[in-house]
Design brief:
mainly alpha; transmembrane helix; transmembrane
Length: 177
């Protein structure tokens, strides 16, 4: 699982303690602070989306249309709600993690664990979005093309969220020699 960080290959902050190949000169504490600030900014974007989606999902059960859903659609709905709740927990988790370990001189480790929680939250958010899209399109159309349409959107999400960043990570951080 990728970690949010600056370790490893040339060009991504590896190198000697205190200095990266790009010339950034920072202490381990400054580096942990910077990485934490960057991670929190990233989490804010995902948290907002997942919280709005999750809030909307919680209201669906109280609509008249819900009682008309087939048992399959209700199962998809329940799965979507559980995925949304799990994504919300994982994306809020870094804040709690930081609060509990704050002042214990382990920010560098807290950043690693918060990064893992964030990555897990993004994967759960992806699953929530896929499940919600599948349910909405099934209810809206009842057509056989829905799984194909959802598969296309999944391919797009995977490309934007994982394939392009991993390609760039490999392309721009692998040594040329």
């Amino acid at each position: 699982m990728p970690e949010h960080g600056d370790r490893g290959r040339a060009g991504n902050g590896g190198g000697t303690v205190g200095e990266s190949p790009r010339g950034r000169n920072e202490t381990p504490d400054e580096r942990a602070d910077r990485r934490w600030a960057e991670l929190i900014q990233e989490i804010r974007v995902a948290q907002t989306g997942v919280q709005i989606l999750f809030g909307f999902l919680l209201t669906v059960v109280f609509t008249q249309k819900f009682v008309e859903l087939s048992s399959t659609d209700k199962t998809i709905y329940i799965t979507t709600v559980v995925l949304g709740a799990s994504a919300t927990g994982a994306l809020i988790g870094p804040v709690s993690f930081h609060r509990i370990v704050s002042g214990r001189q382990i920010k560098d480790r807290a950043v690693v664990w918060a990064s893992r929680l964030t990555f897990t939250g993004l994967v759960l958010l992806l699953a929530t979005l896929i499940s919600a899209l599948f349910l909405v399109l099934r209810v809206a159309t009842h057509d056989d093309f829905v799984p194909w349409l959802v598969a296309g959107v999944v391919a797009w999400y995977l490309t934007c969220w994982f394939v392009l960043p991993l390609w760039a990570r490999y392309r721009y951080t692998t040594s040329k020699g």
